[in-house]
Amino acid sequence: MSSQDNPEENLPAGQGAEEHSAELAKNPFADPGLPPHEHRIQDLDERAAKRSERVVAFLFTLSMLATAGFIASYVIFKPGKIVYIWPFGHVSALNFSLGLTLGLALFSIGAGAVHWARTLMSDVELVDERHDIEADADTKAKVIADFKQGAKDSVLGRRKLIRNSMFGALALVPLSGVVLLRDLGPLPEKKLRSTKWKKGSVIVNMNTNEPLRPEDVITGSLTFAKPEGLEETDHDFQNQIAKAALMIIRIAPENIKDKRELDWSHQGIVAYSKICTHVGCPISLYEQQTHHVLCPCHQSTFDLSDGARVIFGPAGHPLPQLRIGVNDEGYLEALGDFDQPVGPAFWERG
């Protein structure tokens, strides 16, 4: 018989039940001690314990099946498929199945763990007096002994059905997170390496929406531009301008330090991507005297007179340059696409 089976053993030393009752009458807020321990049916009947074991294993197995259903949902349902489900109405079949299966998988693991703890693990309450943070050798030995006893009482080693099904459920659930990586979107393929700019694309002023002539760009000025034909009413305008946004700057040819930059310019007019190569913020600050442009997000600074190389800040590589010329009508035009992918670095970038 444990001390919890006899409530008088929980009373302070030398104090009987009558004295304890008298003490409670004087001080109703005194510590009443632990109530008598009541055995559960699983503690007394091995058949009941086996039933609880099967319930826990069922819940863990249900979690495994729900996780498999979660992964299968990605294969079975198309993202745009809409179905009617009472009482929710018309919903996305993919989203509904993902939420249902993942919720069931996580709930089953939690419910199985709770049922295991409430019916099969030891429920004997142990009382320890508070002690100093620095434990003595006897206390440390007692903690280790209590831990070993708790591990034994958990019946994890003896209840192999629970153990194996639990490990299976815990091993499969993380696969849901791996499958969720699909929601990051489709693979970019070559989309990051090309923009709307191509040979013959006329350069259009973003503010006036008019084609640019060389005489429209004065020395020291900064003009934002886009390719002709890209309109704000286009359904994919934001996606396209995020790669095609352009800066037009006129620098005296004798002040351009990079030979290739000079070859790709027209009478000192140079064209560079407006998208910062750090995290993709739009560059908007220009220092006329130094020919430096500054990204307002994290202060990356580029020298437009020297190939737009990075001279300060966290950006990892220069701004891509667009080779430009003049068409038969006298308008500035692109002679191809950017020489490098626009924006921040990515894994496949050379």
Automatic annotation (TrEMBL):
Membrane topology recorded in Swiss-Prot or TrEMBL: Multi-pass membrane protein
Principal subcellular localization: membrane
Gene3D superfamilies found in the cross-reference section: Rieske [2Fe-2S] iron-sulphur domain (2.102.10.10)
Annotated GO CC locations: plasma membrane
Keyword Translocase included in the entry's annotation: no
Ranges that cross the membrane: 55-76, 96-117, 161-181
Residue ranges of every copy of the Rieske domain listed in the record: 262-333
Region ranges (Disordered): 1-38
Required cofactor(s): [2Fe-2S] cluster
Highest taxon, organism lineage: Bacteria
Keywords: 2Fe-2S, Cell membrane, Disulfide bond, Electron transport, Iron, Iron-sulfur, Membrane, Metal-binding, Oxidoreductase, Respiratory chain, Transmembrane, Transmembrane helix, Transport
Any one GO molecular-function label of the UniProt entry: monooxygenase activity
Subcellular location as annotated: Cell membrane
InterPro entries given in the database record: QcrA_N, Rieske_2Fe-2S, Rieske_2Fe-2S_sf, Rieske_Fe-S_prot, Rieske_Fe-S_prot_C
Function: Iron-sulfur subunit of the cytochrome bc1 complex, an essential component of the respiratory electron transport chain required for ATP synthesis. The bc1 complex catalyzes the oxidation of menaquinol and the reduction of cytochrome c in the respiratory chain. The bc1 complex operates through a Q-cycle mechanism that couples electron transfer to generation of the proton gradient that drives ATP synthesis.
Family stated for the protein in its record: Belongs to the Rieske iron-sulfur protein family.
Quaternary structure note: The cytochrome bc1 complex is composed of a cytochrome b (QcrB), the Rieske iron-sulfur protein (QcrA) and a diheme cytochrome c (QcrC) subunit.
Name the record gives this protein: Cytochrome bc1 complex Rieske iron-sulfur subunit
Source lineage: Bacteria, Bacillati, Actinomycetota, Actinomycetes, Kitasatosporales
